[in-house]
Amino acid sequence: MTDRAARLVTTVAVFLIALGVYVKTLAPTVALVDSGALTIAAWDLGVAHPPGFPLWVMLTHLFTALPLGSIAVRANLASAFFAALACAMTALAVGEVTKRWQAMFFAGLLLTFARTLWGYATVTEVYALNTFLIATIIWFMLSWRNTKQMWRLYAAAAVFGLALGVHHVTVGLTLIGIAVLVFRTVSFDFFKSRVFFIAAAIAIASLVAVYAYLPIAAARGPLLNWGDPETGERFVRHITAAQYRAYINTNNQGSQVDDIARYAGRELGPPWMPLALLLAVYGFLAAWRRDRTLFWLLLLLFGAACAWMLIYPIVNDEDAYLLPAFLALNIAAGFGAATLGEKRSWIPLALLALPLLAAIVHWPYRDRSRFYVAHDYADNALKTMDRNALLFTGDWELYSPLFYVLEAEKPRRDVTAMQHGMLIRTWYVESLQRRYPELMRKVMPELDALHPYLVHFERDDAEWHNDPTMSQTMNAKLDDLILAIIHQQIAAGGHVYATHDVAMSTDPLDQNMLARIKADYDIVPRGIVLEYVPGHALRETRLPKLELRGLADGTVRYEPDDVVVTEVIPSYRSGFYLLGRYLGVTGKYDEAEAAYKQALVLDPENPNIARELQQLELARAMRK
User: Is the pLDDT of residue 250 over 60?
Assistant: First the structure.
């Protein structure tokens, strides 16, 4: 077999193994964080959250048309496919710098079983496609360096422009390393050459072509039309992620360094045996001695991703911002394996024990084949709500999958769901007017009074934060709108519910609204939601039978920082806790005890729940 054939066979083998693993561990339905909203955006050809991810939306839409499983499963499958391609392209990149299929196979499998990419390969997210495109750009640039064939450089430019239509920050940061690679390959004069300007034009044309999707999609008024980027101003704000600039923080580097170290330590295998990570370090050292250009490329890929994470602390998908850094680690490990293999050819194959070890250690945490938590979360909310229900929630982990369930699976056409925190966005209010025209038409006076403040807030949120009078006025008018929606819904014979983060909010900005609500309504626990009931009296309620699979039964394993642990389980615990307290007040001691014990199952070490159980027993004894 020729060297070229061996590399091709190795690449295909890596792709098939990775795809098999990811399909085997694929989530069987919608997941948490942004998966629900992203699934709707892809299925309905809408506009996702900033910067819109137009390329991802269009490509994943093709998967949602496949005649298999639910729409959520099809979108999840897209992630598995893109992630498997990322592993294959990483193997090709290693082949360009080592010429050894053994090192390619090792690096490809090491990425296959790496912690972070695997986590995003089994659910609907943008990061698998992003990693594939970055790996493709690197491969094209390394192959151009080896061959000097201009079509490879132009192909890299085209992919770069397209990739900016996915997660443009992490893609854009790779430009530093790529520029150094070009400089060291053909000198600085390249940046004044005709070839450079052609490549730049190709990248820009690709970028413009892919982002042209956004205003076209927005004009359709899709189910998810985040930012409504139909006008020039809204388009610029959306693609520059103006909504998220407040997260940039240059004063939090200490904790971010800790996070980077923690993610890197567990990325390629068990932290207690960091052999693969040490091999990557060896690969960097070997590159410094033997291929200085490769060294700088990988170091700058790694450093740029880490530097951005230092100033942009986010939650839930923080590790995804390090994927370019982890891609560099995998290529470095492959280079290190090839270097060791020059003296003893069996070493790269022996090193396959490292991805095997990573597979064994990571599988329990990355197997999502029994992950129904997000869908059950939505179902549990729906089953506790009566007919013609309206739900207010600020819980994105509930709203996102519920949005998917209501719009794609349509189990309850009588339910209206509103994301409380997004009511300050004009595009979101406009989408509510399209989806719920009758209800929103009844609150037009309040909408008209609030609208100018929302427009001003979107154009200059700094002034809003710095001007107490403006923020208080806008908040009061937002309260008027929410109260009007509640009144109109109940007046029409419907029911209004809220999750505990809204109904029991401790935010100072919400206290006036809560006082006004409590003046006219009782807040009655129903499970993971609470109902606003007119009047003041003790109400009948009961302990609902909720589906809790995957939360605390051991069928799914979670990292301590997983959103299930940090947000979903606490939400259920609060729901059972509040319900237990209410049932105890109404004298239903057995049901109250059952609610408290269910909360204790989810949070065994919680002293407040144990204390409430003791007080319940005292109340029951006194009653007898």
Answer: no
